[in-house]
Amino acid sequence: MITERIGVDNPTVTYGLDENLVPVVPTGGDASSVVVWYNFSARPGTGGNAVYAGHVTWNGAAVFYNLTSLLPGDLIRLRDDRGAEVVYQVTTNLTMDANDPAALQLLYPAAQDMITIVTCGGSFYSTGDPTFGGAYTSRTVVRAALVSITRV
Length: 152
Prior knowledge:
The protein is mainly β. It has one helix and nine strands.
């Protein structure tokens, strides 16, 4: 995933759902740089909602630390290892309450070709969780619509 405005040029890793049907998030030493594509969502460029996520912080600033800076009109490029590219244009950048059911609905399938990128936002508060240490009060959700597909 490449987003020039926020300085992201990271490969994606495929993740899924855990046994409770909750999206798995990266942990471990490289978690701050991992961009996740969720295999329960559409593949980019296939006509549905391709869902991506990454941390805002993980022992410091993480891959989507500046996600709130993406503006409508900014481009997001997805390139595979053969050079094929799918380009999306940001349509919205939302801040949603972490407990708002509508935030979850943004991960659902859609009829139009789009991507949805989710990260944490708002204020961090301690929960004592041994892995994450706490949680955030909101989610930053960026949606972008298909602009072009270049196949090789």
